[in-house]
Amino acid sequence: MWCVGKLNTEYRERMYALIELYHKPYNPRQPVVCFDEKSKQLLSSSRPSIEGKVKKVDYEYMRHGTRNIFLSVEPLAGKRKVKVTKTRKKPDFAHYIKDLIDEDYTEADQIHMVLDNLNTHFAKSFYETFGTEEAERILSKIQFHYTPKHASWLNMAEIEIGIMDRQCLNRRIPSEKLLKSELLAWQNNRNLAETKIVWKFSRQDADDKLSRHYT
Predict the structure, then answer these.
(1) End-to-end alpha-carbon separation of the chain, Å?
(2) CATH of residue 40
(3) How many CA atoms lie within 13 A of 90 on its CB side?
(4) Per residue in 159-195, pLDDT tens?
(5) Backbone dihedral region of 162: left (phi > 0), alpha (psi from -120 to 50 degrees) or beta?
(6) Number of domains in the chain
(7) Do the domain assignments include residue 19?
């Protein structure tokens, strides 16, 4: 379930714009890519697990730090990309987006990127990381579409992260190396299957469900 924020004019305008974007026909030259990140705590068990029909795991564990996971998904192409980083600072975000442009979307004219309002998710990150010329080259290939505040449900990357949590991360992972290996295998399997996300929620659905809360 999602906690819906104050449904003011800005919220509704951004919501309608994203819903309209999601319903546009697939265009590989103008891909819609949803982006988000999450943290994963590295944990190992204090005692060996007991294998059997039902695996038994001791409740005690040891901490080995936390890693950040960047994830982007192109819902209509069934394509996603994950990257593990030690931090999620401005340079981490800037380098991830640069890699998307230079490695994954070289044929695209412009990427429509959906993301939230985290303070690293803005043009300043690119200027501070790469300087003016390179930042402007990168930004010329992207159009950012920001979700309303407190409206993660409008970002399809959240759907993909939920699937990633259930299929890949719902257990103790003790090391960065294993985390990267598991995520790469998960990513490649879903990309090979071209697993898509079909967005069906319409503007009319939004008005029917949320209009009594509009301000």
Answers:
(1) 22
(2) 3.30.420
(3) 12
(4) 999 999 999 999 999 999 999 999 999 999 999 999 9
(5) alpha
(6) 1
(7) yes
